Amino acid sequence: MADPRDPATEMTRLLGIMAALRDPDTGCPWDIEQTFETIAPHSIEEAHEVEDAIQRKAWDELPGELGDLLLQVVFQAQIAKDAGMFDFADCAAAISDKLVFRHPHIFGTESRDKTAEQQVADWEAIKAAERAGKAERGTLDGVALGLPALTRAVKLQNRAARVGFDWPGPADVLEKITEETAELVEARDTLGPDQLEEEFGDLMFVMANLARHLKIDPELALRRANAKFTRRFRSIEAALAADGRRPEESDLTEMDRLWDAAKAAERA
After folding, report:
1. pLDDT of 11-54, one tens digit each?
2. Where are the domains of the chain?
3. pTM of the model
4. Is 7-102 a CATH 1.10.287.1080 domain?
5. Which of 68, 104, 165, 268 is exposed most, by the fewest CB atoms within 10 A?
6. Counting beta carbons within 10 angstroms of the beta carbon of residue 209, is it exposed (0 to 12), middle (13 to 18) or buried (19 or more)?
7. At what angle do helices 7-21 and 62-82 cross, to 10 degrees?
8. What whole-number distance in Å separates Cα of residue 72 and Cα of residue 165?
9. Residue 15, Ramachandran bin (φ over 0: left; ψ between -120 and 50: alpha; else beta)
10. Cα–Cα distance between 243 and 245 in angstroms, integer?
């Protein structure tokens, strides 16, 4: 008898469950109604929950979160199979073929004796050949529209940098940030909401570029800033609760003082 934790056995079981849920006669009405478009947002959400578990080092939660993410792939593949387009095997074959093709130093005849920099260069050359095969001619073609905005900004900037369209270093980007900040202030005082949004977007785009030059992941940096804000604000709430109050029963001066106390406690 096969081990119940055997990967092939469990994958077959999951595919069977998904097929049953999507059965037009006996399946779950909600699952039957779903489309590529309705499921896509869930895929993004589940990917973020995987990342959240990793950031929190919640290793006991990670198998479940990865399972939720795997379900999204299985769900989309079943929708495609129902439509006669492709199935899960095609998805697995596509990524397997891609990995083999992109690692000729492992699965082919190329030498593994390469620097990390050379491997990155070879990887980009292979990806460029793949894009050419897809008739993606433009430098920016193939950067997914559905990526988080900061991540997509960095990917667009990396593509442009490959062909020489880039600032020489962080100092030049900082100068541009000063310029964009001044334009945002001017827009606030003289322009309408659409122009103000445009100027704010320009500033955010340059901030993403600064992160790239500093070798910082802006999405990760902002998530950590969010976590820090959440942690410190909860300290404010806890301090007020100890006095039988809520934040709305306090004022900015007191909450600033409690914020500074929470910050000092973290640094102690």
Report:
1. 999 999 999 999 999 999 999 999 999 999 899 889 989 988 99
2. 7-102, 138-216, 220-267
3. 0.63
4. yes
5. 268
6. buried
7. 50
8. 37
9. alpha
10. 6
